[in-house]
Amino acid sequence: MATITNYSLNPTCSVSNGTGDQQNFGGAGSGRVTGLTGFPDRTTGFRFVGSSDATHAKTDVLAANTAYTFSTYIKPEYTGTLQVNINWYQNGSYHSTTNGSSVSTTNGSVERRSVTGTSPNVAGTIRGLLNLTSKSGTVVTAQTLVTLGSTLESYGDGDSAGGTWLGTTGLSASTYTINNVTNVFPATAAITFTANDATITKVSASPTADPATIGWAANDATVRVIGEGPPLDLPPANPEPVWTLYARNSDLGREAQIDDFSSLDAVCRFNDVGTWELTLDRRAAAADALVQSGAGIEIRRDDFVIMTGPVTRVKRDRSDRSNLLTVSGVDDNVWLARRLAHPQPASTAPPYNSSADDARTGVGSTVIWEYVNVNLGPGAISPRELSVLTMATDPEVGSTVSGRARYDVLLELIQNLAVAAGDIGFSITQVDDGLVFEVFEPADKSDSIVFSEGFGNLSSFTYEQQAPEYTYVYGGGDGEGTARTIVEGQDSTAVAAWGRIEKLVDARQQDDGPSVAQQIQTALSENSERLTLDITPVDTTNLKYGVHYQLGDRVSVVVDGVVITDLVLQVEISLTPSGPQRLTPVLGTPGRSDLIALFSAVRDLASRTRNLERR
CA nearest 283: which of 300, 259, 264? Predict the structure, then answer.
């Protein structure tokens, strides 16, 4: 059996037409219909009235630059043609269209129509929707299916046998199972094939028949066997991921593949600098490449780049029993920590006394983008510009923020701005032989990416509760004594839960109340009560790190019956050639209501308390 994910958020209108991304849209009079006949598995759907486009519900979040197949069953109320297309969206805005072919329609006939397209190779949140255009009349559709790859799979959703809704029943992505066997023809002798621990035997109906072709589909790969042969072991349903390491040269190109190593430990961090450490024999083929000036590393898991970054430390350990090389480094976000935010970024020489600071106000992503551009990117003066860095398009996300830069560490400045803008993200990643800085809004996958022991995708977890450092803040702006600007702020929920814990935040670089208030809110957010979750996920067909979720995404974890939702703030990786290969996502602080609900549940389970609390 194979597990398939249907990414459609409202595949058959079984509950309602939903809201937002779950909605279907058509001409006047269009709407959900029930009591349908002639469709293979469902009796509910949506009736798109008239010649207007039949715009189906959007999908769950999809991977970039990846092939997907969209299909639906149609029952037209006219005879003619229509065109089947995919509309792609980036961060909620239309991006592009994959045009399918024009197909014929027959009045009253139920037919299945499909189109395969590759999602845009862009950053941010990517979704798609099936759109029927160029139609000349009303069409009823049901059983919309969106699957990974170019194979047109049999229809299924959370209501199918063995199916599961990954979020709200009927209004979310879902998984279901299908049989791997695609066709069996008479063979000249008994042939036994083993697939996913199920043994299937085909006995010849005619000993004199020609050798037969038997097709098996597993994990989107078709294995074809001609004639007689020994038992065939197909790949498991969830093959182990393949980790690949490369040594990077000073031009950011691959210098050598690192095959022979003892261990690798790495930590990827959201909006911060990641770290890594690699130990290998000094005589290994890639060792020389790693000790060259400007060397770095590239870490991949299957086709997904986990981390890239430069070497910062080399240690040699030689004895009569060992000849080891330990190479340590950071990820490419380090460049943000290697620059200051200059008060006069366009000036080329001292005394830098025409402006006290570089003040900027605007949409969060725009302000962050501008500070990076003028201090590190193409907008910086030549000695400060990182020549291999380009700037991705500003997505214009986040709330309005104000910044005042005066020799702040650039990374620390934009970290604070990202929090103030509503926890938006930023990163420097390698693309080909260059680096790209981007700002993005974290993808909310909390409805589709759910870790739970009951789902079989969570093997272990730990969580830690920590009281806030303070809950009530006095912010001191510029001025002295009675002339100093003072603004107050509090986290009212934290005050109610933990009491009033006061703190003075020094904001003397701010000369106006709103800027001081912004710094207060940032301080309260960074020092709020925390519940940190470390989880050990189990890769499944529809839930793999780097394919379905990644650093910075908002996901959900079910802990003692309580759903905790927050960002993946960190991913810890530990590899050895012989295993085990460990990947541990770490989630940040969940919402206040989650915290209260969780610990109320824990108090009711006294026998577990000692094992679960971390102080």
Answer: 259
Is 204 in the same domain as 309?
no
pLDDT (0 to 100) of residue 1: 57
Residues 321 and 285 both lie in one domain: yes
Q: What pTM, to 2 d.p., does this model score?
A: 0.56
pLDDT tens per residue, range 207-221: 333 333 333 333 333
Residue 593 tokens, joined: 């209501």
Angle at alpha carbon of residue 491, lines to 490 and 496, rounded to 5°: 110
Beta strand ranges found along 416-527 (DSSP E): 425-431, 434-440, 450-451, 458-466, 472-476, 486-490, 502-506
3-state secondary structure of 229: coil
Alpha carbons 595 and 318: distance in angstroms, whole number: 50
Q: State the Rg of the chain over Cα.
A: 28
Category of 252 on φ-ψ map: left (φ > 0), alpha (ψ -120 to 50) or beta: left
Task: Tell whether the torsion through CA atoms of 551, 254, 577 and 195 is positive or negative.
Answer: positive
* Domain encompassing residue 69: 2-178
Q: What is the DSSP letter of 92?
A: T
pLDDT for the residue numbered 124: 79
- Other Cβ atoms less than 10 A from the Cβ of 136: the count is 14
Confidence at residue 220, expressed as pLDDT on a 0 to 100 scale: 34
Instruction: Tell me, yes or no, whether 293 lies in a domain.
Output: yes
Instruction: Tell me, yes or no, whether 445 lies in a domain.
Output: no
DSSP-assigned letters across all residues of 361-375? EEEHHHHHHHHHHHH
Residue 248 shares a structural domain with residue 289: yes
Q: What ranges in 329-432 are assigned the alpha helix state H? A: 334-337, 364-375, 410-420
How many angstroms separate the CA atoms of 451 and 80, rounded?
A: 47
In terms of domains, do 79 and 211 share one? Answer: no
Q: What is the CATH number of the domain that holds 56?
A: 2.60.120.260
Give the rounded distance of the alpha carbon of 33 from its chain centre.
35
- Whether residue 238 is contained in a domain is answered as no
Q: What is the pLDDT of residues 228-264, one digit of tens each?
A: 334 444 444 456 788 999 999 999 999 999 988 999 9
**How far, in Å, CA of 359 to CA of 368, rounded?**
12
Count of other CB atoms within 10 angstroms of residue 79: 13
Instruction: Output the CA angle 465-470-472, nearest 5 degrees.
Output: 135
pLDDT at 98: 94
Separation CA 402–CA 367 (nearest Å): 8
Rounded-to-integer distance, Cα 15 and Cα 168, Å: 10
Intervals of the chain under pLDDT 50: 180-237, 590-615
Residues 388 and 460 placed together within one structural domain of the fold: no
Ranges assigned E (strand) in 7-153: 31-33, 45-48, 54-58, 67-76, 80-90, 93-105, 111-118, 126-133, 139-148
CA–CA distance from 375 to each of 67, 348, 380, 409, 432 (Å)? 38, 12, 5, 10, 23
Q: Are residues 577 and 596 in the same domain?
A: yes
**323 and 342: one domain?**
no
> Residue 249 has what DSSP assignment?
-
Structural contact between residues 585 and 533, judged by C-beta atoms closer than 8 angstroms: no
